[in-house]
Design brief:
Length: about 120
């Protein structure tokens, strides 16, 4: 069982920056950042795959950067926009089967472990 703990959220003005962190209590094979705004479905923001590659949703490309260190996942967010306001959560799997491309992968909901989230609010 892996526990995930996010931190780094807060309130920032449009155009500003924030860096989110997600600390994992154990080894993970793949990790990702998701967000959910009020009244909207959860969406994957960025993920880091088993081979070290990363992908981003189109709306954050060029503004957000996902990175990973031993036991921790980061999301550097720059040029923040009002529409980036959401609860940001990290997700992870310690089984390759539950990672993108894995045998049991069927989309973002396949991650085994989820954090409780950290709120990001962007104001004008």
């Amino acid at each position: 069982q892996v526990q995930l703990q996010e931190s780094g959220g807060g309130s920032v003005q449009s155009g500003g920056s924030l860096k989110l962190s997600c600390a994992a209590s154990g080894d993970t094979r793949c990790m990702a950042w998701f967000r959910q705004a009020p009244g909207k479905e959860r969406e994957v923001v960025a993920d880091m795959r088993m081979d070290g590659s990363s992908t981003y949703t189109d709306s954050v490309k060029g503004r957000f950067t996902i990175s990973r260190g031993p036991g921790i996942l980061y999301l550097q967010m720059s040029s923040l926009k009002l529409e980036d306001t959401a609860m940001y959560s990290c997700a992870a799997s310690d089984s390759s089967w539950r990672c993108p491309g894995g045998r049991l992968w069927s989309g973002g909901g396949s991650y085994q472990y989820w954090g409780k989230g950290t709120q990001v609010t962007v104001s004008s």
